[in-house]
Amino acid sequence: MHRHRQSREELRIGLFGGTFDPIHNGHLAVARAARRRFRLDRIYFIPCGRPPHKDRPGLSPYLHRFAMVVLGCAGEPGLLPSLLEAGPGWRGLRRSYSIDTVRRLRRLYGPQARLYFLLGADAFLYLPTWKHFRQLIRLCDFIVAARPGFSWRRAARRVLPAVREARGGRSGSVHFLPAVRVALSATRIRRAARGGSRLAGTVPRAVADYIQKMNLYRRG
Ligand code: ATP
After folding, report:
1. Given pLDDT bands bounded at 50, 70 and 90, which one contains residue 219?
2. Secondary structure letter of residue 200 according to DSSP
3. Each residue of 178-201: pLDDT tens digit?
4. In the beta sheet, which residues pair with residue 140?
5. What is the best residue among 19, 55, 69 to mutate for testing ligand 1's pocket, by most ligand atoms within 8 Å of CB?
6. Domain with 186 in it: what CATH number?
7. Which protein residue's CA is at the shortest distance from atom 19 of ligand 1?
8. What is the pTM of this model?
9. Would you say residue 2 lies in a domain?
10. For the segment 117-127, what is each residue's pLDDT rounded down to a tens digit?
């Protein structure tokens, strides 16, 4: 079949932000499914600098989290590591806000591009508390991935009215992705690594290798 080359205006770009400490197979399954379902040209995996909502002690340095994102995206068509939230000197020390990242991508790709912000149902619950929430939801669509243990219905009841209100009565910017349900979390994987368990099946092989060789998650 002949495929037309898309102009820059028609690009469909996904952004997947997170701490990615580490990136895991849940993130990758969600991204692959979203790319297929919404015909996204590419999805940027954007490790945050200092997270506004998850500033926990022991967060791995940005360099490690970014390295694992690079390894996790390797060989995955359309999934790209991004330094957008690396901050000065690429050290990842600055607090990251999604609104700034989305604005930067909007400037880069122009008003016609479709931007899709990927997040899990757990993170979606807190969307109205994000910095400049009202502006944010005008700048991009959201793809909310199912996540075992978190009710989409509850999240929808709590968040959709705020989204609708902020968009002046119009909704439609929030899409649900029920297709994959992966009961994995980075917390669980860090715990397994600390206990010396095998990580096979929870993170890509190269990421497991990196965690082991760099001795991540063994202290504290
Ligand atoms: P932690 O256990 O350290 O809190 P996490 O597994 O939630 O980490 P993050 O890097 O914080 O991973 O998540 C980035 C984004 O990916 C968030 O929007 C989160 O909701 C989503 N996400 C993470 N794991 C899953 C999963 N298994 N299914 C669906 N969404 C997920």
Report:
1. low
2. B
3. 989 999 999 999 999 999 999 999
4. none
5. 19
6. 3.40.50.620
7. 120
8. 0.94
9. no
10. 999 999 999 99
pLDDT of residue 167: 80
- Residue 1 falls inside a structural domain: no
Pick left, alpha or beta for residue 151 (phi over 0 → left; psi -120 to 50 → alpha; otherwise beta): beta
52, part of any domain: yes
Q: Which of 89, 87, 105 is nearest to 16 (CA)?
A: 105
Average pLDDT over every residue of 153-176: 84
26 lines ligand 1 (CB under 6 A): yes
More confident residue, 34 or 1: 34
Residue with tokens 């010396």: 196
Total tally of structural domains belonging to the chain: 1
Residue keyed to tokens 């580490």: 22
Q: 54 lies in which domain range? A: 8-214
What are the tokens at 32? 């692959």
Residue 219 lies in a domain: no
